[in-house]
UniProtKB/TrEMBL annotation:
Protein name (Swiss-Prot/TrEMBL): Cation:proton antiporter
Keyword list, A-Z: Antiport, Ion transport, Membrane, Potassium, Potassium transport, Transmembrane, Transmembrane helix, Transport
InterPro entries referenced in this protein's UniProt entry, alphabetically: Cation/H_exchanger_TM, K/H_exchanger, Na+/solute_symporter_sf, NAD(P)-bd_dom_sf, RCK_N
Membrane topology label: Multi-pass membrane protein
Locations listed in the record: Membrane
Membrane-spanning intervals of the chain: 6-27, 34-53, 59-78, 90-112, 118-138, 150-173, 185-207, 273-293, 299-318, 339-358, 364-386
Length: 596
């Protein structure tokens, strides 16, 4: 009961936040991951725990938006070409896993005496893994871009698609409903195709112009609003025709994966995704009925063991048989053996259809939740075994990652200077990713074939989404000294392994960058001035070898002067200049330093 005058759900929000603040750090300290902490928090405060809150069903409806935003962010990381490369994992490996696991679990249920309808729903419902749970584990471990992480994601994506025919199966099994007519089926198929086409057309031709228009306003909150509108709007269109909301958001993300705004969209949505995903797992934990669990402990424990064992064996065998290494096959097997959130959807539909008893559905839900709780323990067990094997001298094959997942160089600022840097790097075959905050400049660079993305260099979340954490080198080609200084501080604080190369606008800026400890800096006009002077000397008849000596002398004197200025201030080292006395220096050298 909320306090008088308090906003709706105020007390509930306080309880949610307090429970997660306590449970999640403890779970992470024990090595179980944040998801187990959220589940434990939900079980503790729910109606079957301490009873602080009632049913978690209302919360779950809101929290499911976290799964939607998660799939949107994942879609942003997969461009259509990369997704096409995964077709074998999605439609081959994923389909085989669902069919084989579902058929086996159905056979076990039928053998134990359960009805055909109940066994079908339970078997294929438990064959689906948790997209939210598994992807959270992969992201926490930094393995989503690894070879086995991509294969696991392909299986999860097919399972999200599979919920559509499984819900249709429930409708066909319903005792009081006859089969649909041919015209009804045709209308339904046409509606689904039309919805998918609408999302594709909007994502392909409308989203990028919209974000370009909004980016020109430099209003971050409007960009965030538009990002949520695209993700949730696509999910809503799919939901309206009976498809998975998460699938619609994923499709929108894939269509924007080649957009220049993908990194900013990912950074903007990430806080909402993380919060709602946590709320989702809390709501799932609240639905764990301890009374039913204790009354049927043996049956539930056997169900958990059978589900995880059957799914694990098929996942290992299928991934191993389709080309994965033994270690990767085991990693997939221990990442995806749990039941999933779509099982709750399927069981609820079966209850409404009238052939799945409520108590049986609660038992199945308990099995799903406990398999979620057991999955991190399975991952820890595999890590322990791998560590023991490594210690005994048995090395496991290294996990290979997709080349697209790790950019070699991140270029920040893609004007004339940054574009020339990018041209030199790409000529050597290096992978280059660039961000800029001017839509016109981005559009021009993309027409020339460069991958440039919209992003604010003073936001660490945007830098992370753009790949700063994986880049071997960050090239700072920004024209604004203040922005560059803020960005360098963020990179040094959050991505210390990256080399930082900087473009200095003048001598004072070069001194500031040197004091910041960047790995390399160069004044943009210094080299062009050297080239200009050499060309002038050559035109005036100076021998080539003499020009080389002059250049070397000028460079040495400039380095000595910079060293003195770092120690003694801007006016030091005037004696290192050719034909300039200290008296002349005091009058006009400051303006020279500001422009060189």
């Amino acid at each position: 009961m909320a306090a008088e005058g308090a906003p709706p759900f105020f007390t509930e929000s306080i309880i949610f936040l307090a429970a997660t603040v306590v449970a999640v750090p403890i779970a992470k300290r024990l090595g179980l991951g944040s998801v187990v902490g959220y589940l434990a928090a939900g079980a503790a405060i729910g109606p079957f725990g301490l009873g602080f809150l009632g049913s978690g069903e209302d919360v779950l409806h809101v929290a499911e938006l976290g799964v939607v935003l998660l799939l949107f962010v994942i879609g942003l990381e997969l461009d259509p070409q990369k997704l096409w490369k995964m077709k074998r994992d999605i439609f081959g490996l994923g389909t085989a896993q669902v069919l084989l696991t579902g058929a086996t679990l159905y056979s076990i249920g039928h053998f134990l005496g359960y009805s055909t309808k109940l066994s079908l729903v339970a078997g294929f419902g438990l064959a689906l893994s948790s997209t939210a749970f598994a992807l959270q584990i992969l992201q926490e471990r930094g393995q989503l871009s690894s070879a086995y992480g991509q294969r696991a994601f392909g299986i999860l994506l097919l399972q999200d698609i599979a919920i559509v025919p499984l819900l249709a199966m429930v409708a066909l099994l319903a005792p009081d409903e006859g089969p649909s007519t041919g015209s009804e089926v045709a209308v339904e198929v046409a509606t689904i195709v039309g919805a998918i086409g609408a999302v594709i057309l909007a994502g392909r031709f409308l989203a990028s112009p919209l974000f370009s228009f909004l980016a020109a306003s430099r209003a971050r909150e409007i960009m965030l609003t538009a990002a949520l509108l695209v993700a949730l709007g696509s999910a809503g269109i799919m939901h309206a025709v009976g498809l998975s909301m998460a699938l619609g958001a994923f499709l929108a993300g894939v269509l924007l994966a080649e957009s220049s705004f993908r990194h900013t969209l990912e950074a903007d949505i990430e806080p909402f995704r993380s919060l709602l995903m946590g709320l989702f797992f809390v709501a799932v934990g609240m639905s764990l009925d301890f009374s039913i669990l204790t009354e049927n402990l043996g049956l539930v424990a056997a169900g958990v063991l059978i589900v995880m064992l059957v799914k694990g064996v098929f996942l290992w065998a299928l991934t191993r048989g389709s080309g994965s290494s033994n270690s990767d096959a085991f990693r997939v097997a221990v990442t995806l053996p749990q039941g999933g959130e779509f099982a709750f959807v399927l069981f609820t539909a079966a209850i409404s259809a009238g052939f799945l008893p409520y108590k049986t559905a609660n038992l199945l839900n308990s099995i799903v939740i406990l398999t979620m709780l057991m999955t991190p323990l399975a991952c820890l067990a595999l890590d322990w075994i791998a560590a023991r094997l490594k210690k005994s001298g048995v090395e496991n094959p290294a996990i290979e990652t997709f080349e697209e997942a790790t950019p070699t160089v991140l270029v920040i600022g893609f004007g004339r200077f940054g574009m020339m840097v990018g041209q030199i790097l790409t000529s050597e075959g290096l992978e280059v990713r660039a961000i800029d905050n001017r839509p016109d400049r981005i559009a021009y660079a993309r027409k020339l074939g460069y991958k440039v993305y919209y992003g604010d260099a003073t936001r660490s979340d945007v830098l992370a989404a753009a790949g700063a954490g994986k880049a071997a080198l960050v090239a700072m080609c920004i024209e604004n000294d203040r922005v560059m200084s803020q960005s360098i501080d963020l990179i040094r604080g959050n991505f210390p392994n990256a080399l930082v190369f900087c473009r200095a606008t003048d001598r004072a800026h070069a001194l500031e960058l040197t004091q910041k400890g960047v790995d390399y800096q160069i004044r943009e006009t210094f080299e062009s001035s050297i080239a200009f002077g050499k060309a002038a000397l050559e035109s005036l008849g100076t021998p080539i070898d003499r020009i080389a000596q002059i250049e070397e002398d000028v460079r040495i004197r400039d380095e000595e002067r910079l060293a003195l200025q770092l120690e003694e201030g801007m006016f030091a080292g005037a004696d290192r200049l050719h034909a300039v006395t200290p008296r002349r220096r005091s009058k006009d050298a400051v303006s020279d330093d500001k422009s060189d």
